[in-house]
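SEQUENCE-TO-STRUCTURE ENTRY
===========================

Subject: a protein chain together with a token-level encoding of how that chain folds.

Sequence line: the amino acid chain in single-letter code, read from start to end.

Question of interest: how does this chain fold, as expressed in backbone structure tokens?
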Amino acid sequence: MTDAAATADDAVPPDDEARELLETLVSTPSPTPEEDDCAEALVAFLESHGREVSRDEVGNVRAPADELAVAAVRTGVSFVGVVGEETDSRGARHLVADREPPDAVVNGEPSGWDGLTLGYRGLVSGTYIATSELGHTSRPENNAIQDAVAWWSAVEERFDTNTDAGDEDDDASVFERVTTTPVAVEGGVGEEGLTVEATLKAQLRVPPSYSTAEIRELADAELAAGTVRWTDAVEPTMQSTRTPVARALRAAIRERGGEPRLLRKTGTADMNVYADAWDCPMATYGPGDSALDHAPDERLPLRALDRSAAVLEAVAARLK
């Protein structure tokens, strides 16, 4: 054990209530979109503490001010357990459309008990579609499959997804870049036997130096044939280190023996949705290592949970 970890252990006693809730929630299957059983377990926890709690139209668990979970139960700030975070963020999207902006947001995701996440890249998703007349393969003209390959090759070249020689391909450098990923490709002779058809589904991750509209425009400019149907866009976000939320998190981590780490994530989270809709300070915080998300060895040290619960309790009290 490091000196810092030992200091943190001394500063924070075991939190049996938080541990019991964690065990209940992680032992309840909740893959998107099958969050109902887990949501009901959270409802039961809140009701057992005499709190008024409800589920909204999309399935979010909502406990308004004075109605919260573990650290939140003890401090009386608003809590929402949102659904759909791993797919379409339907819970977060419904939330921003359904309520007024809050004074501050702490978004719950793994950052490590001593880390806070201030930035996420955005996301653009789309499907390229092309159709060409069926012809003999000896002809020099491109068919739809070649058009799809040509467009995607041009997009990859346009955004230069490879780092320069000697650059480290770490999260910090990736965060500043547009990265391009094809997620599904289909092509072949159409059902009527007269055409060649091709579709390519793609995702482009967007750093804060771009908007999603700019990325779509640049990708569209590489079209020589076919069209792109853009299906989703989530704006990137980069929060200041000087907001009340960031300051409160840093102070609470230090008070419990940690040295705060400021993080920027290369992926996208519900905080992107909140930041695009609400003009209020926010950050993401939670125990655990995000590199282990969905991995077979995903795990959460209980002492990290204890420290995070204490940090969140202090932050919530400070921001009230």
